[in-house]
Design goal:
Blueprint lengths: L2 H7 L28 E12 L2 E12 L4 E4 L6 H9 L8 E10 L6 E2 L16 E6 L4 H8 L2 E4 L12 H11 L7 H11 L16 H14 L4 E5 L7 H15 L4 E6 L2 H7 L2 E6 L2 E7 H12 L13 E14 L3 E14 L3 E5 L6 H8 L7 E8 L2 E4 L8 E3 L2 E3 L10 E4 L11 H5 L9 H14 L4 H7 L9 H14 L4 E5 L7 H18 L2 E6 L2 H7 L2 E6 L2 E7 L4
Parallel strand pairs: 3-9, 3-10, 7-8, 8-9, 14-21, 14-22, 19-20, 20-21
Antiparallel strand pairs: 1-2, 1-4, 4-5, 4-6, 10-11, 12-13, 12-15, 15-16, 17-18, 22-23
Length: 564
Amino acid sequence: MKEEEKERRGEGRGKRKKMDGEGETRGKRKKMDGEGETFVEIRNVSKAFEGKVVLKDVSLKVKEKEPLGLLGKSGSGKSVLLRMLRGTDEYAPDSGEIIFRLAYCPRCSWLEGPSKVGEKCHKCGAEFEFREVNYWKDQKMKRLLKSAIAIMLQRSFALYSDEGVIWNVLEALERAKYPKSKQLKKVYEILESVKMLHRVNMPDTRDLSGGEKQRMVLARQLALSPVLLLADEPTGTLDHETAKVVHRALIDTTRGGTTFLVTSHWPYVIRELAEKVAWLDKGEIVEYGEADKVVTEFEKEVGEIEREDYKKFGDPKIRIEGLKKYYLSASRGVVKAVDDVSLTINENEIFGVVGHSGAGKTSLMKIVSHLESGTGGSAWVRIGDRWYEASKADAGTFVKDGVIQGGTTEWRSHFVGVLHQEYTLIPKLTTWENLTHGIGLNMPEDLAKMKVKFVLEGVGFSDEEIKEILPKTHQELSVGEKQRILIAQLLMKEPNIAVLDEPTGTMDPVTKKYVGETIIKARENLGITFVIVTHDLDFAEKVCDRVAKMENGKVTEIEDLRVG
């Protein structure tokens, strides 16, 4: 184990000896006020690379538990300052200093923010003392402190891609020496906080979307119980809708707890994530203050930065090219159920396929869902970074030259989940049972409760409503409640893409409204890509981002319904 982690966790030794020449203020202090206490002070810091000045006389105070944004155009020095705070060796300041004000446990060396001074350490029970540390001059304390600082780097998914969602968080907890008996419950708590409980059974993280991978990176960082979380352009490569889900997870997991610094050149990111903002330009702080005020001034000065993916979603998730589904009918001859259809559906989009009965919309989605094969063209589905051909028939078991041959497929059931229009809840089971062992969910009851609550909240049920519906059977629920629970049941199975076949059926307008809101909330809360197959154009226009209109097996029009 690394020496700094041993020091931080206080393992393999007794009480830590006092260090010589540490250059810090020691001892007990009267307990400080919580929020508003200065946690990090950056004093007149400058830095140059190969003669080019990237930071010039920067001074800034970081308050404990107050989200701080570093805003500026590319090359303004934001990322350099963040890596300097992380303690990366090549980013050592040329001049100036960075001071951390900490609560330090003299027995086990655990670190917290300064508001914990005078309290008992939750690790060993000793009383926290105040320490003021000159970060870049006190190398021993720097090693200790560096292990308590987490960072999310831009364009980097630091995950074990061949391992599952739970394993990735367990590995981080193991490194943090979290008690083994409590690890699994802690995993579920962390995954719930980053809005990833709907992916607990994902076999490997390479199948996750970009936004889900970023939330998993956050989960791994939170497992280390950082005293400071740094995020460098955490959603810079994500589309706007996916970014909003990640932002919500960052806000929920840090506000009121972990001190959080975020950099971005997108004004909307800083507005959503920060309370105070420092605007950097050419290595200098030109303005500091309340987020809305500074961001507004930044926009006036530099103009609104164009963000192309404000009006688009993520990368393509479903790609259909010249797809055909022809078959022979004794009464109708050659039926062209799907006739040379080409379209693309993007990640995190709510996409509608509309048309009258017999238009070919259900046949199209059966092929995309890998329930039927096509007879020409192709339909591909992207899972993580890999593409799978949904339109190709599986090579089933067959006999060749008297020998049984076994066909294989890479397709997995969680790729595309389908809610067929004839689906219903199992009548004699309660809502709880329908969402757990009724679908073969196999996990400890207390963890299953967390996941059920998380998914039901994701589709728009309040805590009070959840308590009311869980013990009810099919007969005791309203039509709208049943349909929302069916959508939750589908999401409990953790699909990458959710296909809803005629989700409103013959519902009344009020119930339709509830179902529409459920789909929109599920996309916002969970980052799911939805495909809605319906004959109800009015419903599709209210809920979907784009709609493909089908007639006689062909797509006649794709309409973009987004405003702006």
